[in-house]
Amino acid sequence: MGRKKAKKVKENRLILSKKEDEKLSRAPHSFVFYRGNVGGNVMDLTMDVRRMMEPYTASNLQVQKQNVWKDFVAVGGLLGVTNILSFNKTQQNVTLRLARLPKGPTLYFKVKNYTLCKDIVSNLKRPQTCEEQYRNPGLLVLNNFQDKHKEGSKDINFVDPHRLCQSMLQNMFPSLNVHELNLNNVKRCVEFSVSEDKSCIEMRHYSIAVHPVGISRRMKKLVTKKEIPNLNKFDDVGEFLMNQGDGSASESEAEPEEKSKVQLPQKMTGNGNMKNHKSAVRLTELGPRMTLELLKIEDGLCEGKVLYHKLISKSEAELEQLEQAKLNKIKEKEYRKKVQEQNVKRKEDQKALNKEKSIQGMKRKHAQDGEDPNAANAKKTTTWNQGRGGAPTSKSNSFNKKRNQRQNTSETGQELY
Prior knowledge:
Elements (H helix, E strand, L loop, with lengths): L1 H25 L2 E6 L5 H13 L16 H11 L1 E9 L4 E7 L5 E10 L1 H6 L16 E5 L17 H10 L17 E7 L6 E12 L4 H8 L12 H6 L5 H4 L9 E3 L14 E8 L3 E10 L7 E4 L6 H54 L3 H15 L6 H23 L1
Parallel strand pairs: 1-2, 5-6
Antiparallel strand pairs: 2-3, 3-4, 4-10, 6-7, 7-9, 7-10, 8-9, 10-11
């Protein structure tokens, strides 16, 4: 019986591991880095955004100065990366480039204002930060991206920048299945909100906490606190709960708004957060905070057709002229490539023809001299090896024989004298 149970446990673990692997492979992954000399504040902003995108991001990504965008695209394709966020700083402002791998589109933002995590947390009276919050992805909240006034005035070539930006932001975070979602894993939320005048996008990052409602402050002390408060001054618990003095008014908190009260569909962590009971959702900002202005949208990956530009507007004739110039440039490039291939082939054929002519001329010369071409080639090879420091050749051997004969002749003459 025990063996069957252990076997069943192993099978269940295998099924869960396969589901986790499938979930991990389907989740969008990202690279967050900076390029150029950006300064310490933008470096910290990059690290904060990288932490916000956890756990599906490269937390320990090391970027070298010689790395270019093609390097990140090539490595990202192997690692399953779907989004790239790149910060850069010019003399005027800070820019953010958001690209979708592998073929785009690419969104260019101007970072008008930003606040780092350390500045936000330092100004909070009770910051809510812990490592457990970043084990699961944050919940994405989008606000005011759809423009109802422009719904009916669209043509087939019109590109709604905010609608496209909404789609890009949705693809940065994993989708949620409401039926399988565990509310205890939802610890954070990331909000992108478009301003009323549609000029900029506000980004906020919050931690989510749930507290029971409908009970007094003193009851919360008994229910939610792990340590029991000091009851030495009271005869029983009822007197502690009903007493209005002892600073109870100063300890009281403001009653949460009705909008923040929800009925929990499942039990959550924390005393008092029971299923089908009302609880209040409280958000505490974690940071970073950014105000983004959408400047440009390109069709490809940092290249291609410009779908939207906030500062530059072109007429239909100018767009057609640019498109025609682009097509002409592509055709010219293809023509140059074709001509280059033909030139390379012609040179290779000419080289082979010259080599064949050279071989035929050598054979004719050897035939006229009455020598064997193979023997002549062997003789040349022997001489060449001697020049490279190889073994002594036949030519060097004859030279040594003549030198020995001269030495013997001189010794004979000395004996005669």
